[in-house]
Amino acid sequence: MFIIVGLGNPGEEYENTRHNMGRVVLENMKKIFSKDSDFSDWETDKKLRALTCEGKIGKQKVLFVEPDNYMNNSGGSVKPLITNKKKAEELIVIHDDLDLPMGKYKITFNRGSGGHKGVESIIKNIKTEGFVRYRIGISPVTPSGKIKKPSGEEAVTKMIMGKFREPEMAEIKKMSKRLAEATEMMIVEGRDKAMSLYNN
C-alpha cells in the first residue's frame, strides 16, 4: 500500500497558509482521484493522530494521511505505518520548500530534510531517508524570475504563515493535477519513470 502524506499544521488558523502546502496539494489530489475511483471520506485516526482516507490508484491501494500533530512532530503519525525500509519506498511526503519558487516543484528520493522540520521528524521516526518527497516551492519571485527567499527567522515565519492569494491557489490546483499524474505513474510504472518525466 502506498502512503501519501501531506504536511501542515492542524487548525483553522493554518488553513491555506504556505507552510500547509502539503495538505493543500494532498486535498486537491484527493478531489482529482475521487472522480475516477472511490475514495473514503476523511476520518480521524486517533492512533495515528491524523486524518486519513483510503482509495485506489490504478489497482494499488493508497492511504492519504494528514498528520494532526504539529509540523515538528509529523513523524509520530507516520512511524506506525512505516515499519521497515521496504515500506518507506512506498511513502510519498508532500511539503512546502523555501528553496523553490512559487509554482515550481521537485520530486526527490533518498535525500536529507533540507532543514524542513516536518521531514526531519519523519526521518528521525522511521530511521531512513529512503522515501519520495514532493518539494513544493513557496518563495516569491522577482519580475525577472529570480527567487526572493526571506532571510532571518522573523521574515521566514511571517512568510510561511501567510495565506495564499487567489491566483496562487489557481496555480496550486494546476500543479496538483500534474502531481496527481506523477503519482499515478509512480505507482503504476515506477519511481524512476515518474521522476524523469515529471520533474520540472
How many extended strands?
7
CATH class assignment:
Alpha Beta
**Which stretches of 5+ consecutive residues score pLDDT under 50?**
none
Helicity range? 25-40%
Name of the CATH superfamily:
Peptidyl-tRNA hydrolase
- The sequence of SSEs as H and E is EHEEEHHEEHEHHH
Helices, by number, come to 7
Shape: globular
Task: Summarize this structure as a short list of keywords or feature phrases.
about 200 residues; alpha/beta; Rossmann fold; about 25% strand
Any overview of this molecule?
With 200 residues, the protein is of the alpha/beta class. It has a single domain, classed as Peptidyl-tRNA hydrolase (Rossmann fold). It has helices at residues 21-34, 75-78, 85-88, 117-126, 153-160, 166-189, 191-198, and strands spanning 2-6, 43-45, 50-57, 60-67, 91-101, 105-109, 132-139. Strands 2-3-4-1-5-7-6 form a seven-stranded mixed β-sheet. Helix 1 (21-34) crosses helix 6. It is globular and about 45 Å long. The chain starts with a strand and ends with a helix. The model has no long low-confidence stretch (mean pLDDT 94).
